[in-house]
């Protein structure tokens, strides 16, 4: 799973430090891999991977819980992290995960259509929104609340892609009985 976070660059050093600290600690706490922070033509971005290099059977839930915790500002310095405007895109699907580069310089990362889509979704969302792909929404529809946002056209994709917003935790009813309750 690819969690792509875009953040506003016009922030104080203290707010930036608090935000990145929160991202790193919360990613670790939720079993994610803080892959990179970068500043480029897309602005400030962070890439966090779930399921690589180490996978868990519930990586999708972990990724959503990570983002909701980040939104809630659960870090050691909430005042500085709260001052950062950010948005995220979450996608689920196959990626190439491994070492990219040469013997002089390489990094562990993930690349592919899934990562590209999470970036496009994040960059086309409003600040404060967490956009998820249809595959994420479908797999977690009972664990989290989502709101359908419509289908969007993204650069590099031939057809419109359905987009959902992660709104919060939902009611997980997998273990709830569907039959009648009988009391004796």
- The DSSP helix count reads 5
Number of domains: 1
Q: Give the low-confidence spans.
A: none
Q: Major beta sheet, specifics?
A: 7 strands, mixed
Strand order of the largest sheet: 2-3-1-4-7-9-8
CATH superfamily: Nucleotide cyclase, GGDEF domain
The first-to-last residue Cα distance is 47 Å
Strand count: 9
Helical residue percent? 25-40%
Radius of gyration: 17 Å
Describe this structure in words.
With about 180 residues, the chain is α+β, with helices and mostly antiparallel strands. The chain has a single domain (about 1-170), classed as Nucleotide cyclase, GGDEF domain (Alpha-Beta Plaits). The chain contains five helices and nine strands. The chain has helices at about 15-30, 60-70, 80, 115-125, 135-140, and strands at about 1-5, 35-40, 45-50, 85-90, 95-100, 105-110, 130-135, 145-150, 160-170. Helix 1 (about 15-30) runs antiparallel to helix 2 (about 60-70). About 35% of the residues are buried. The mean pLDDT is about 85.
């Amino acid at each position: 799973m690819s969690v792509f976070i875009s953040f506003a660059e016009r922030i104080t050093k203290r707010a930036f430090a608090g935000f990145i600290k929160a991202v790193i600690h919360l990613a670790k706490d939720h079993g994610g891999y803080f892959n990179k922070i970068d500043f480029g033509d897309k602005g400030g971005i962070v890439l966090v991977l779930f399921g690589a290099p180490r996978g868990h059977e519930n990586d999708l839930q972990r990724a959503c819980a990570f983002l909701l915790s980040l939104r809630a500002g659960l870090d050691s310095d909430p005042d500085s992290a709260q001052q950062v405007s950010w948005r995220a895109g979450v996608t689920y699907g196959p990626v190439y995960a491994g070492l990219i580069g040469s013997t002089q310089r390489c990094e562990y990362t993930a690349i592919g259509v899934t990562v590209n889509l999470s970036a496009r979704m994040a960059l086309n969302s409003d600040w404060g929104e967490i956009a998820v792909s249809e595959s994420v929404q479908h797999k977690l529809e009972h664990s989290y609340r989502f709101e359908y946002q419509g289908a969007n056209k993204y650069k590099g994709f031939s057809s419109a892609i359905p987009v959902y917003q992660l709104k919060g935790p939902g009611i997980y009813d997998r273990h709830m009985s569907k039959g009648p309750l009988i009391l004796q």
